[in-house]
Structure formats: structure tokens, C-alpha cells
Amino acid sequence: MMAFKRLTIVFSVMALASFAGIARAGTTNIAVAANFTDAAKEIASAFKAKSGHEAILSFGASGQIYTQIQQSAPYKVFLSADDERPKKLAEEGLAIQGSRFTYAIGKLVLWSKDQDLIKGEATLKANAFSRLSIANPSAAPYGAAAIEVLEALNLYGTIKTKIVMGNTIAQAFQFVETGNAEIGFVSLSQITDNKAGSRWMVPQSLYTPIRQDAILLKNGETDEASKEFMSFLKGPEARAIIEKYGYIMDAKSGT
After folding, report:
1. Mean pLDDT (whole number) for 157-182
2. What are the CA-CA distances from residue 201 to residues 111, 128, 129, 156, 207 (Å)?
3. CATH number for position 190
4. Is the pLDDT of residue 213 over 70?
5. Is the N or the C terminus of the chain less surrounded, counting Cβ atoms within 10 Å?
6. Which residues are CB-neighbours of 23 under 8 A, at least 6 positions away?
7. Shared domain check, 174 and 133
8. Could you give the CA distance from residue 90 to residue 78 in angstroms, rounded to a whole number?
9. CA angle, 49 then 55 then 57, to 5°
10. Structural domain contains residue 19
11. 23 and 42 assigned to the same domain
12. Which domain holds residue 122?
């Protein structure tokens, strides 16, 4: 009888602990730059498995998300594709000062589904294509980087009429993927698992480093799930995922 009572107590304690864990589990709404889509999904899954919290992800161009936050979108964390917009949000009082840090540094790639088309910068100089896909440079940092590359090579003036713009880097990638453009500037993260086609890893000397900063927004200031996600993003599990998608990691954080 005593053994049965002890067993009952043990199960009761386990049930209470399980219930307490469920009760503490929360949700956080995270705005994510489109280039980080696949990595963010994997990180959110790992975060939920470890913490019980659910990260609800919304994707878009960093410029579009920035405007949405200014217009009171209910995001709690912002994973931008640049470092300027998170900095501005902190200056505008819409994000928490001191919470900003660089979670990844992106790599720009010129990519084609044609395995013989990309021959480094020579492909751009030959100008033997009808459409070049890039993300909108006013909203997407990867698009701005693409323009920098063309200007650095003194090719923008001759190629600009062939440029087709996606609203996001995801759409720029789709233009090439679907054959609407023969070549396009994309993020390395979008083609890490895609061995088909041809590519040119654009030298870092041709464009400003794409420092991608995360920041805790005002809506997440007192939210435990949001703060825990920010901590998780700095940890080894998230870092391993980020590196797997071809991003460079950086030890320095923003202020």
C-alpha cells in the first residue's frame, strides 16, 4: 500500500512538473529577412524543442518589415538582413537599446540554373544574357549589395536595362529558379543544398559586408519567450544551423 502511495506521489509530481512546463511555454512573433527563411525555420524548431516556446515567423524584405514595425506591427523580435534598420529602430524608441547583435554575415552569389553559364565576373562583362535578377535594393540589403557589385565592376550602366527586381531576395531567387531570368544575385543560404547549375561567389571586396542584426523590439521587452529566443540565437545550437546555411559568424555584437 505504501509503495502504491509513493508511486502515486511520484506520478503526481511528474504531472505537475509537466503542466508547469506547458504553462510557462509561450509564443513570440518574429519578423525575419527573407534570405534567412530556411535557417530561421530550423532554428525555431530547435528552439521549441529545447524551450517549449513557439516562434511564429513572418518573412519579408528588411525594408518592408522596418516600415511595418513603424506602423505598429505586433512583432517582438526582428532578424534583419542589415545592421542599419535595427539600429534605427532602437534610435526611434521602437526597439530595446543594447539588445542588438550581429547573428550572421551573408554572402552574395551570382547563380544560374545553367551549369555552363556562370564564369565568374566574365559572365557579367560578356553581357550575353537577357535578364539579371536581383532583390529590390531599396528594401533588401542583398539587392543593394548586387548594385554595389555592378558599380564596382563599372557594369551597371550597360546592364541596368536587363535587371528584373524581386520584392525580396526570395523572389529574386524564384525568377532564376523558374527561368524568368537566366542569372541572378542570390544569397548563398538559398543554394547551399542545391548543387545544380553554376555559381560565382562574389568577392567580399566588391560589396559592403552584409551584417545581419537581430534586435528585441519594444513589444517583446517583457516577454520571456522573446528574450529566450534572443539568447538561443546566440547559442551553439543556433550558431551551428546558421553556419550550415553558409553564413559567416561574427563574435562582435552591436550596441
Report:
1. 97
2. 9, 19, 19, 19, 12
3. 3.40.190.10
4. yes
5. N
6. none
7. yes
8. 11
9. 135
10. yes
11. yes
12. 108-201
> Is 186 within 8 Å of 155 (Cβ atoms)?
no
pLDDT digits (tens, 9 = 90+) for 66-101: 999 999 999 999 999 999 999 999 999 999 999 999
**Distance from C-alpha of 142 to C-alpha of 104, rounded to nearest angstrom:** 13
Question: Strand 108-112 and strand 183-187: pairing?
Answer: antiparallel
250 in a structural domain: no
Q: Do residues 186 and 236 both lie within one domain?
A: no
- Give yes or no for residue 251 having a pLDDT over 70: no
**Is the per-residue pLDDT at 48 higher than 60?**
yes
The predicted model scores a pTM of: 0.85
147 shares a domain with 68: no
Continuous segment of H or E residues that includes residue 33? strand 27-33
Beta bridge partners of 199: 111
- Please classify residue 255 by burial: count the beta carbons closer than 10 Å to its beta carbon, then call 0-12 exposed, 13-18 middle and 19+ buried: exposed
Q: What is the mean pLDDT of residues 23-30?
A: 85
Q: Are residues 101 and 122 in the same domain?
A: no
44 inside domain: yes
Q: Are residues 56 and 43 in the same domain?
A: yes
Q: Is 147 left (phi over 0), alpha (psi -120 to 50) or beta?
A: alpha
Strands 198-201 and 108-112: antiparallel
- 18 assigned to some structural domain: yes
Percent of the chain with pLDDT over 90: 86
What CA dihedral angle connects 59, 65, 71 and 73, to 10 degrees? 30
